[in-house]
Amino acid sequence: MRALVKHPDGPGLTLEEVPVPEPGPDEVLIRVHTTGICGTDLHIYEWDDWARSTVPAPMTVGHEFSGHIAALGSNVKGFEIGELVSAEGHVVCGKCRNCLAGRRHLCKEPRGLGVDIPGAFADYVVVPKQNVWRHVEGLDPEIAALFDPFGNAVHTALAFPVLGEDVLITGAGPIGLMAIPVVRKAGARNVVVSDPNEFRRSLAMEMGATVTVDPTTADWKTVQGELGMTEGFDIALEMSGSRYAMADILANTVHGARVALLGIPSDPYPIDWSTVIFNMLTIRGIYGREMYDTWYKMNILIQSGVDISPVISHRFSAEEYDRAFAAVRGGDAAKVLLRWAD
Ligand code: NAD
Ligand code: ZN
Fold first, then answer.
1. How far is the C-alpha of 325 from the C-alpha of 338, rounded, in Å?
2. Active-site residue 105, yes or no?
3. Interatomic CA distance for residues 220 and 155, integer angstroms
4. How far away, in angstroms, is 245 Cα from ligand 1 center?
5. What lines the ligand 1 site, CB under 6 Å?
6. How many other C-beta atoms can be found within 10 angstroms of the C-beta atom of residue 160?
7. Per-residue pLDDT of the chain (342 residues; tens, 9 = 90+)
8. In terms of Cα–Cα distance, which of 126, 20, 114, 124 is closest to 60?
9. Segments making up each domain of the chain, as ranges
C-alpha cells in the first residue's frame, strides 16, 4: 500500500510502498478514504525541533481521516465491514488516574496517531477498537475526515454556555472557523471573529460570523458599539496561539468573562494577570476532544444542520501531497484534504 512517511534525515515526506498493517485482536483495519492536513503534520513535514524530539521516524504521519472498515480483529464486536468511520487520534493509556475514572481526555500520557504510532496518510490504517468512531448514515466522507479538528472546535465552543452571549473567537484557522456555526447553533448573540488573514476572515463570514476584525488595525470599541455591546465579550475562544490575541481578549471581555484557550503558543509569554484577577475571569485550557462526548455532539450537530463544509479550501490526490502541504503553508487556505480512495 502507499504511505506518506517521515524519514529522520531532514524536511519533507516520501510517498512509498509499505506492507498493509495487520490488525491485532483488539484492533480495526480501515481503508482510508480522505485525510486532512493539520498544523501538527506541517511541523513534522518541516522537521522542526518539536518534531525531531517527538516523532520516532521513520513514521507514517497523519491523524485526520475518514475511511471504511476493511477488517476486524478477533475480539472486535459491534462494527461491520464497509462502515464509514473516523478515529480518535489520542490512544489513551487506560491505566492512569483519569483513564481509570473514565476521564480519558485527561489521560496522563496519550499516544498520538501519526506522531507516536503509524498514522492515516496511507491506504490503510490500524487503530484500537475503542478509538473507532462510526459516522451517521450517509455522511460525506470529506465531512467525516474533518471530525478530529471539528472535535477541537466543538470541545472549545461548548466549554461554556453561550446562549444569548456575545462571543469573540480569535483566530480563523480551520478550528476557529468550525467553531462559528457551533456557537451559533448553541445560541450565541454576536460572534465576532478576529484574524489578520483576509482570506480567512471572508471564510468566517461565510460560516456565520456576525462581523470579522483585522486585529492589526482594529478599533475594538467601535466594533462593539456597532453591535450594541456596552461592556465587552462574555465569552472568548482563543484559537490562534497568539499572545496578541490573548491581549485583545483581556482588553475586550466583560468582568466575569469566560475564556477557553485552544491555540498553542509557540513560546511562553507574559500576560496581564491583574486584569484576570480584577475582572474575575475564568480561563480554561482545552486539549483534544472529550472521549466520547464531543464525538457524540459532533454527530448531533451535523445531523441538526451545522454546515462545516466551507472550511474545505483545497482538495488533492495523495500523490499531490507536496502541493497540498505548499497550499497549507501558503496561508490562503483553510482545510486542505488528500484523497486516498475513489
Ligand atoms: P491555524 O494556525 O491554521 O490558525 C491560526 C489562525 O490565527 C491563523 O489564521 C492566523 O492568521 C490567526 N492569528 C494569528 N495572530 C492572530 C491574532 N493576533 N489575532 C487573531 N488571530 C490571529 O490553526 P488551526 O489549525 O485552526 O488551530 C488553531 C490553534 O489551535 C493553533 O494554535 C493550533 O496549534 C492549536 N491546536 C490546539 C489543539 C488542542 O488540542 N489544544 C488541537 C489542534 C490545534
Ligand atoms: Zn491514561
1. 10
2. no
3. 27
4. 10
5. 39, 152, 170-176, 194-197, 200, 215, 239-242, 244-245, 262-264, 286-288
6. 20
7. 999 999 999 999 999 999 999 999 999 999 999 999 999 999 999 999 999 999 999 999 999 999 999 999 999 999 999 999 999 999 999 999 999 999 999 999 999 999 999 999 999 999 999 999 999 999 999 999 999 999 999 999 999 999 999 999 999 999 999 999 999 999 999 999 999 999 999 999 999 999 999 999 999 999 999 999 999 999 999 999 999 999 999 999 999 999 999 999 999 999 999 999 999 999 999 999 999 999 999 999 999 999 999 999 999 999 999 999 999 999 899 999 999 999
8. 114
9. 2-146+308-339, 156-285
Pick the atom of ligand 1 nearest to 261's CA: 41
- Could you give phi then psi for residue 191, rounded to 5 degrees? -120, 105
Question: Which of 240, 264, 289, 335 has most ligand 1 atoms within 8 Å of CB, for mutation?
Answer: 240
- Is 33 among the residues known to form the active site? no
Class of domain 156-285: alpha beta
Give me the CATH code for the 2-146+308-339 domain, please.
Answer: 3.90.180.10
Contacts of residue 53, defined as CB under 8 A and 6 or more positions apart, other chains included, come to none
Give the HSE-up count for residue 262: Cα atoms under 13 Å, Cβ half-sphere: 27
Query: 217, 215, 195, 219: which is closest to 205 by C-alpha?
Result: 195
